[in-house]
Amino acid sequence: MKIPKKALTYELFMLVLILLSFALIPYHNFWTVLLNWAIWAIFTLDYVARLVRAEDKKKYIKTHPFQLIAIIPAYGLFRAARIVSLFHLLRLTAMGNRYLTPLYNFLKTNGLNRFILIFLLLVIFIPVPMVFIEPEIHNYPDALWWAIVTATTVGYGDIIPVTPIGRILASIMMLVGIGFIGMITSTIMSYASGKKKRFSSTDKIAHITKAIDQIEELNEKEIAVLESYLAMKKKDE
């Protein structure tokens, strides 16, 4: 499917805004804050416009959760969610249609996309209370670092929860991290197995199509034998 030039230009413009938003992360001054809010306003208008144009609005909200998270007006906190919008926008371009469609198919296997959503939400939100309840965690970036290290089961040990609530949250992150690794492993196996079956079906269809193309080369006697065989197979079923 060829994308109109205007639509492609618009999507590339949104892509530039996303990349610009990431480039501004290290800088904290009046102009960068103002620019970030301007980018947020554009994202919000884009989301609202797409939502208004969607025929099934509930379905649109369910299928675009990260776009909704990305427009929440919390400076810096939810900016990481915009990286998923990057994949969404790239998919709308010719390059995305060619290279990222297999990735989307993989993410849909076994409901991995939903599990990733839950995983990312926990990684984003659980660090928030950790800033207030843990004496060793003084800011959100440190808490986010701890959450990522814990969820991926790396366990550097540079930040250790000491409060009961902190340890409960850490346990949740560890269990989710272990489940996430297992989910990815099972998804890879299911995707590979399904892909093999799809290739097998494609080969069969190609073989049948080739045989049909060659039917004109058969004589009347051979066609009669073929019809008799097909009739017999139909009765067996």
From TrEMBL:
Keywords associated with the record: Ion channel, Ion transport, Membrane, Transmembrane, Transmembrane helix, Transport
Gene3D superfamilies (UniProt xref): 1.10.287.70, Voltage-gated potassium channels. Chain C (1.20.120.350)
InterPro entries in the cross-refs: K_chnl_dom (IPR013099), VG_K_chnl (IPR028325), Volt_channel_dom_sf (IPR027359)
GO CC aspect terms: voltage-gated potassium channel complex
GO molecular function list: voltage-gated potassium channel activity
Keyword check for Amino-acid biosynthesis: no
Transmembrane segments: 7-25, 68-91, 111-132, 144-162, 168-192
Annotated ranges, domain Potassium channel: 121-191
Subcellular location: Membrane
Gene Ontology biological process: action potential
Membrane topology term: Multi-pass membrane protein
PANTHER family: POTASSIUM VOLTAGE-GATED CHANNEL PROTEIN SHAB, VOLTAGE-GATED POTASSIUM CHANNEL
UniProt protein name: Potassium channel family protein
The organism of origin for this protein: Listeria fleischmannii
Organism placement in taxonomy: Bacteria, Bacillati, Bacillota, Bacilli, Bacillales
